[in-house]
Design goal:
Elements lengths: L2 H4 L1 E4 L10 E4 L3 E5 L5 E8 L15 H13 L3 H11 L14 E7 L7 E9 L4 E8 L2 E10 L4 E8 L5 E8 L7 E4 L4 E6 L9 E9 L2 E5 L2 E7 L1 E10 L6 H15 L1 H16 L3 E4 L9 H9 L7 H18 L25 E2 L3 H5 L13 H22 L9 E2 L20 H16 L2 H21 L1 E2 L5 E2 L10 E2 L5 E2 L6 H21 L3 H11 L21 E2 L25 H16 L6 H13 L3 H14 L15 H14 E2 L6 E2 L10 E8 L3 E8 L2 E8 L3 E6 L4 E5 L6 E3 L2 E6 L4 E7 L3
Length: about 775
């Protein structure tokens, strides 16, 4: 298979639905390209077009009622506690701001009749981040290319015709119902489109489109008209008042500056910039080449049971996740939201916000391991945006120091409770989970300067729990009140409830956060007394416990679930993304984790895309290759749309990123300070290779395998220690000038930056 074909998504008909359109983006500007012929409509987004300004939503009734609620929960008077919390702890008002579309760019061929058009194909080249539509009408051949350039900050649409006077177009921009103010030409080749959110303190936006043609270009009504052209380039610049005081001038300047470069140079700069990121890592799963089949039909093959013979589609899905992250999260942008940056609705599902009881975190699970650490910068910046708001929430609602957040945040870093929904609203672990990504970044990079810069953030997230944790009847330190994200339990007496004390995920997550601060203190040689305090508190946190079904208990009591197949599997946080439960270190707990999964799945679990993606990671951590294979197939078969977007349903991008992370975990893991190759290789992936994957400990890894064994290489980016697990019958480890030391089944080698270790492993000796 040619390289370009392996990374090509293509279709032999235009998209008839948003979930079949193809996404382009530069982290800030996004578009959904339908690939239509006579009249193309590209749906537009800009990451900072949101519905309004910052709301001060902390509920002043929470703190006076906190001790009362805690007393009721300790007395198991659940309904009474929930009644108070449902009024006194919800945000005021209930909702944060939500994400909104920018508009629609329309390109109409005024002299073509749809009946005479012959469709060629539309495609997305994931290797170059360029979307292409091709069709013909009579003797004329047309092409339309769309990309979003990060270096030049614009969207570029380039239309050509084989007849040098064959393009007659109307170009316009609009959309957003009534939520815009003007879309009129301001010159013969430019349109200014601008408006606001409808809120007095909200975000205003502007977009300029500049149209360049080699024939006649003029303004008419709300259109830019192109007559007798052979090629036309439409350049769109966009900006908002969130970042720029003079946002109209910024949008105009971006478009004009890009236009001066010309289409060819814009395309060159875009592809060069994109490839620097995309090309860092690679995955090939060897199989019969099916790149000559349209992508939607390949996907249908999975649904019809033929997916086992299309490993190439799995690799394409993994590549697509990289593409989506590069396209929706770049340095200086907002983090990828619930839909990345691609949203068509004025009032999207769940506000297309940052849902931080798993979804935002899952968006970044694959970033470090696929060699894209700088794409986490928007997330890290947003955590800092949340900190001052989170301090106010901690103080005003709970009387605590530090900073906290609940299960959602928005463009302003709002940290107050979101919604009025018992299974989710009263959960104050959001900041803790996000901050663990800071610690993960250090573990992957060993960047001491980064750790020093973020140490206070980690400490402040932990400080909240130093005050918030209380002692239960057994002397343990527990969260109260809280929930196990979005699940409901049934007591022995048959009462249902959501509000509780010490759900398992809380204790596991706080353990990870305290550990991060303790170990960071040691690395930075600071705050030793405080680290000792956290050690003592950590020792009093509830441990993962096995329940009556042989499962990891989800709550402090061994309750039944109202939905045994619930999409959240929060009690396995310690298995993934954390590593406190592992096959090698805690085999009994690993067995209980497996029982937990089996119970969920036997009751219909994994029915949402992101939940299925999480299950893939769980299966990989349990070294279950067959389970990985089954759940990858289920993800593609049941929760993936024709354009390979993950479906909750509806579309949520987290499953794309979580699924890719799970595929990586099946091929390489670096948990508990150990590196292991092919720990959960699915039986169908008989041969393949990867390169450029990152492991914790500042390591870059490559591997090539077949049915007989594998050859691998590990290169250190910093001075570090490699602890390599032997998982084949014979493993030869060599490094120039080094003598490997074996400790049982672990090979230990100290490495300097730039040094490489080679591994030759056979399944059979």
């Amino acid at each position: 298979m040619r390289e370009c074909e392996r990374r090509l998504m293509w279709y032999d008909s235009p998209a008839d639905d948003w979930n079949m359109a193809l996404p382009v983006g530069n982290g800030r500007i996004g578009g959904m390209v339908f690939g239509k012929t006579v009249c193309e409509c590209i749906m537009l987004n800009e990451d900072s077009v949101w519905s309004g300004g910052l709301r001060r939503r902390n509920n002043s009734s929470a703190k006076p009622n906190l001790e009362k609620v805690r007393k009721l929960l300790f007395e198991e008077r659940i309904a009474e506690a929930e009644e108070i919390v449902f009024d006194a702890f919800c945000g005021v008002p209930e909702s944060q701001r939500h994400y909104m579309p920018l508009g629609e760019l329309t390109i109409e061929h005024t002299d073509l009749d749809e009946k005479n058009v012959v469709y060629g194909r539309r495609s997305l080249d994931i290797g170059e981040a360029v979307c292409l539509t091709e069709f013909s009408c009579g003797e004329k051949n047309f092409s339309r290319e769309v990309f979003c350039s990060e270096p030049d900050g614009v969207m570029v649409t380039h239309i050509t015709c084989s007849d040098k006077k064959g393009l007659n177009l109307h170009v316009s921009i609009g959309g957003r119902d009534d939520y815009f103010d003007n879309n009129s030409p301001v010159s013969e080749d430019c349109i200014l489109y601008h408006g606001g959110s409808g809120s007095e303190d909200g975000i205003n936006f502007a977009a300029y489109i500049k149209v360049i043609g080699d024939g006649e270009v003029s303004a008419l009504g709300q259109f830019i008209c192109c007559k007798d052209c052979g090629e036309v380039t439409v350049i769109l610049g966009a900006a908002t008042s969130f970042r720029h005081t003079d946002y109209k001038e910024k949008a105009f300047a971006d478009a004009i500056k890009a236009a001066a470069l010309g289409y060819g140079r814009l395309r060159e700069r875009h592809i060069a910039d994109y490839k620097k990121l995309f090309g860092r890592s690679e995955l090939i799963l060897s199989d019969e080449d099916k790149s000559d089949i349209p992508t939607d039909r390949r996907l249908a093959g999975f649904r019809n049971g033929g997916g086992i013979n299309d490993n190439g589609l799995v690799a394409l899905y993994w590549d697509y996740a990289k593409y989506l992250l590069i396209s929706s999260s770049r340095e200086g942008t907002l983090p990828a939201n619930l839909q990345g940056i691609w949203n068509k609705e004025m009032f999207p599902p769940w506000g297309s916000k940052f849902t931080i009881n798993i979804n935002t975190e899952m968006n970044y699970w694959s970033a470090e391991s696929s060699g894209l650490p700088e794409l986490c910068e928007p997330l890290f910046t947003h955590i800092e945006r949340m900190r001052p708001n989170g301090r106010v929430t901690a103080r005003e609602m709970y009387g605590c120091r530090g900073f906290t957040a609940h299960h959602n945040t928005d463009i302003w870093g709002d940290t107050a409770p979101q919604d009025k929904w018992k299974p989710a609203t009263q959960w104050c672990m959001g900041a803790a989970w996000l901050c663990l990504h800071l610690w993960e970044h250090y573990k992957y990079t060993l960047d001491r300067d980064f750790l020093a810069a973020k140490f206070d953030t980690l400490k402040e997230a932990a400080l909240f729990f130093e005050d918030f944790l209380i002692e239960d009847k057994n002397g343990r330190l527990v969260t109260c009140p809280s929930v196990s994200p979005e699940n409901t339990y049934i007591t022995k007496g048959g009462e249902s409830g959501t509000l509780c004390t010490a759900p398992s995920m809380d204790s596991q997550m706080i353990c990870e956060l305290f550990t991060a601060v303790i170990e960071a203190s040691e690395i930075l040689d600071t705050d030793k007394e405080h680290a000792d305090k956290l050690r003592e508190m950590r020792s009093r946190l509830p441990e993962p416990t096995v329940g009556k079904y042989g499962q990891i208990m989800e709550w402090a009591e061994d309750y039944d679930e109202a939905e045994p197949g619930h999409r959240h599997i929060s009690q396995l946080f310690a298995l993934y993304p954390a590593d406190r439960i592992s096959v090698r270190r805690t085999p009994l707990l690993a067995k209980a984790a497996e029982a937990t999964l089996e119970r969920r799945l036997s009751h219909g679990g994994g029915h949402t895309g992101w939940s299925r993606a999480w299950i893939i990671n769980f299966r990989a951590r349990l070294f279950d290759g067959r389970g990985v294979e089954e759940n990858v197939r289920a993800l593609l078969s049941n929760s993936t749309s024709g354009n390979l977007f993950d479906m909750h349903p509806p579309f949520q991008i987290d499953g794309n990123f979580g699924g890719a992370a799970g595929i990586t975990e099946a091929l390489m893991q670096s948990q508990n300070g150990e590196l292991i190759f092919l720990p959960a290789l699915p039986p169908a992936w008989k041969s393949g290779s990867f390169k450029g994957l990152r492991a914790r400990g500042a390591l870059v890894c490559s591997c090539e395998w077949d049915e007989y064994g594998f050859k691998a290489g590990v290169t250190a980016l910093k001075d570090t220690e490699l602890r390599l697990v032997k998982n084949t019958a014979r493993m030869i480890v060599s490094a120039e000038g080094k003598t490997p030391e074996w400790h049982g089944d672990v090979c230990v080698i100290g490495l300097k930056a730039g040094e490489t270790v080679n591994i030759d492993a056979l399944k059979y000796s």
